[in-house]
């Protein structure tokens, strides 16, 4: 891969990191903002700082290598198929990053939470098909299983936690001040977990590009801080359309529901990072937790048309991104 193409991929990875923070990480504090546990500016600043710390912590504990990056991104077969022409892999990465970024912009515009990981995996599938590489169906299957189990676990846990909060409140063992403090702490945990979970994606893209360009992994390691800063900077800007969907359109969120949702999301993301090889979507997890908390107070407390639209976007993500990436990769290869 040429130096210019590597620089292009690295720049797109940083843009993707920034928009990932803008699109996803703001979800972490959407409930705290909606329930007025924290002022919006304070909540966004807290989330940005914790995303930065989480990203650095998550990146510092991994051993950056080409094999790690390819396995994480599901690009092993694509790399093998393009080993004789590194530039081909570079253009495929350009296509994948552009489509992933484009899907994030589209879902932000309609105010729907969606997974950056799922968009990336779908794009990788489409790009692989376009260059004639074997698709990583096993990796995609693992992602789909995680995307089903994760939200269901989060919703179920949030439902149970909400009932526990109701019981404690009934006996006056948990007051509104306690709930808002605990919600702030749990929102911070989700923000930290998001940084640890999602900063790996852009760094892995850079690691794959560096290896293809014949560079040492120290080049990719040098991007750790820029990636973490990009995620934090995006978080600070705040994806307000998605915050509004999770905090107001999906249900009329109370402090108790916010606490249940944030606590359950933090626990689910933490457990997934410890026990799964496939990253879990923080967006899906938190949104499902909000649904579970609302459902604990009765089905009428959830706005099901909004929830249905959200699920449709989730299901469409890998399909639409795969088609778009296959088309864009084909166009790029025809031009070059």
Automatic annotation (TrEMBL):
<dbReference type="GO" id="GO:0035435">
    <property type="term" value="P:phosphate ion transmembrane transport"/>
</dbReference>
<dbReference type="GO" id="GO:0016020">
    <property type="term" value="C:membrane"/>
</dbReference>
<keyword id="KW-1133">Transmembrane helix</keyword>
<feature type="transmembrane region" description="Helical">
    <location>
        <begin position="42"/>
        <end position="68"/>
    </location>
</feature>
<dbReference type="InterPro" id="IPR001204">
    <property type="entry name" value="Phos_transporter"/>
</dbReference>
<feature type="transmembrane region" description="Helical">
    <location>
        <begin position="203"/>
        <end position="236"/>
    </location>
</feature>
<keyword id="KW-0472">Membrane</keyword>
<keyword id="KW-0812">Transmembrane</keyword>
<keyword id="KW-0813">Transport</keyword>
<feature type="transmembrane region" description="Helical">
    <location>
        <begin position="311"/>
        <end position="335"/>
    </location>
</feature>
<dbReference type="Pfam" id="PF01384">
    <property type="entry name" value="PHO4"/>
</dbReference>
<feature type="transmembrane region" description="Helical">
    <location>
        <begin position="144"/>
        <end position="166"/>
    </location>
</feature>
<feature type="transmembrane region" description="Helical">
    <location>
        <begin position="117"/>
        <end position="137"/>
    </location>
</feature>
<feature type="transmembrane region" description="Helical">
    <location>
        <begin position="88"/>
        <end position="111"/>
    </location>
</feature>
<protein>
    <submittedName>
        <fullName>Inorganic phosphate transporter</fullName>
    </submittedName>
</protein>
<dbReference type="GO" id="GO:0005315">
    <property type="term" value="F:phosphate transmembrane transporter activity"/>
</dbReference>
């Amino acid at each position: 891969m040429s130096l210019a193409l590597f620089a292009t991929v690295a720049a797109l990875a940083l843009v993707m990191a920034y928009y990932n923070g803008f699109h996803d990480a703001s979800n972490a504090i959407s409930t705290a903002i909606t329930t007025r546990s924290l002022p919006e500016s304070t909540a966004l600043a807290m989330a940005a700082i914790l995303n930065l710390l989480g990203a650095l912590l998550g990146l510092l504990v991994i051993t950056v290598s080409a094999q790690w990056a390819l396995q994480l991104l599901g690009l092993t077969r694509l790399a093998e198929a393009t080993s004789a022409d590194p530039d081909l892999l570079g253009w495929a990465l350009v296509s994948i990053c552009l489509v992933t970024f484009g899907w994030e912009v589209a879902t932000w515009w309609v105010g729907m939470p969606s997974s950056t990981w799922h968009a990336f995996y779908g794009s990788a599938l489409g790009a692989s098909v376009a260059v004639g590489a074997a698709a990583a169906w096993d990796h995609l299957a693992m992602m789909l299983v995680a995307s089903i189990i994760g939200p269901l676990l989060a919703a179920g846990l949030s439902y149970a936690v909400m009932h526990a909060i109701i019981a404690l409140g009934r006996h006056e063992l948990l007051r509104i001040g306690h709930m808002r403090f605990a919600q702030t702490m749990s929102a911070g945990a989700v923000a930290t977990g998001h940084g640890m979970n999602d900063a790996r994606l852009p760094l892995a893209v850079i690691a794959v590009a560096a290896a293809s360009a014949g560079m040492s992994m120290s080049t990719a390691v040098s991007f750790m801080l820029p990636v973490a800063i990009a995620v934090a900077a995006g978080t600070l800007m705040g994806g307000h359309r998605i915050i509004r969907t999770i905090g107001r359109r999906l249900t009329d969120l109370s402090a108790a529901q916010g606490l249940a949702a944030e606590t359950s999301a933090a626990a689910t993301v933490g457990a997934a990072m410890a026990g799964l090889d496939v990253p879990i979507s923080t967006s899906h997890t938190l949104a499902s937790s909000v649904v579970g908390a609302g459902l604990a107070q009765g089905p009428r407390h959830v706005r099901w048309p909004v929830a249905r639209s959200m699920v449709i976007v989730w299901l469409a993500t890998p399909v639409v991104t795969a088609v778009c990436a296959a088309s864009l990769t084909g166009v790029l290869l025809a031009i070059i």
